[in-house]
């Protein structure tokens, strides 16, 4: 059974069709790179799949649980949103222990896991400082740990390397691959295409709420007409262009 499955999933905000009849089927241990221009509907899709907003029509499930069953979904998913909610007055330790408590995680094993993750992300020395005094990168690291702490079946990551220095960004990329190796499904939305090329086994490109291409990066970047390889950026620009002249240029080039 796919870990993420949707059928004709649709979200409308007034006149705006933010997500338009989306069909997804993503398996266990897959890293799915979810691409699309600004306003394409990526965040709305993630909010639908994490139960934060309800579909206008269509259906979806995470690990077999319908996306309309918000409480049922909670143990199965982790979500790193673009602007993660953190308690400014708490330290990273307090924040993570609080989240572990909410999720009823076993105390001792969780404590060890928190320590390991803080250490891997070079955050141990700052883990007793208030989040209010954190840099953007330190917040991002704390929020990432919060999203994966309970070892969910599916983790949704919105720009996970945003604000991170090169070392931390590399650590996160390695962690994503480790998560997938251990069977977690990673749904990754980012505008940083080299990150997608490095970690994703499948790429989906969203444009105006519709999935306009999907496949493994190698197949997507292979030109059917010439047999040449183009970059993921070329493919992205071609498929999401709103200017017909740009399409011609891209195919001729
Ligand atoms: N709460 C809302 N109310 C009204 N319209 C919304 C709402 N949320 C999103 N939209 C609209 O839905 C469309 C998709 O927005 P969404 O935030 O999902 O795009 P995105 O692909 O995540 O963009 P970005 O890359 O800029 O983050 C946009 O036209 C946006 O204006």
Automatic annotation (TrEMBL):
The keyword Cell wall biogenesis/degradation does not apply. Keywords: ATP-binding, Nucleotide-binding, Transport. GO terms for molecular function: ATP binding; ATP hydrolysis activity. Residues 4-233 form the ABC transporter domain. Signal peptide: none annotated. SUPFAM superfamilies: P-loop containing nucleoside triphosphate hydrolases. Gene3D superfamilies: P-loop containing nucleotide triphosphate hydrolases (3.40.50.300). PANTHER family: ABC TRANSPORTER ATP-BINDING PROTEIN ALBC-RELATED (PTHR42939). This is ABC-2 type transport system ATP-binding protein.
């Amino acid at each position: 059974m796919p870990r993420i499955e949707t059928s004709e999933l649709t979200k409308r905000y007034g006149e705006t069709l933010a997500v338009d009849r989306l069909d997804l089927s993503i398996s266990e241990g897959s890293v799915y790179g979810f691409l699309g221009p600004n306003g394409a509907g990526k965040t709305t899709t993630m909010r639908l799949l994490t139960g934060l907003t309800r579909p206008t029509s269509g259906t979806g499930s995470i690990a077999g649980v319908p996306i309309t069953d918000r409480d049922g979904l909670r143990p199965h998913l982790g979500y790193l949103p673009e602007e993660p909610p953190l308690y400014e007055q708490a330290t990273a330790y307090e924040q993570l222990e609080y989240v572990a408590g909410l999720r009823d995680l076993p105390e001792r094993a969780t404590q060890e896991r928190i320590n390991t993750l803080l250490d891997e992300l070079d955050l141990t020395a700052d883990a007793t400082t208030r989040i209010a005094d954190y840099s953007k990168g330190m917040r991002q690291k704390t929020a990432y740990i919060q999203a994966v702490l309970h070892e969910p079946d599916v983790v949704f990551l919105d720009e996970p390397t945003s604000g991170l220095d090169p070392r931390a960004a590399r650590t996160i990329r390695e962690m994503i691959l480790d998560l997938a190796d251990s069977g977690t499904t990673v749904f990754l939305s980012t505008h940083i295409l080299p990150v997608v090329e490095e970690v994703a086994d499948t790429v989906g490109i969203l444009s105006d709420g519709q999935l306009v291409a999907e496949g493994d990066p190698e197949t997507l970047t292979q030109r059917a007409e010439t047999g040449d390889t183009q970059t993921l950026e070329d493919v992205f620009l071609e498929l999401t262009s709103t200017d017909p002249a740009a399409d011609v240029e891209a195919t001729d080039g």
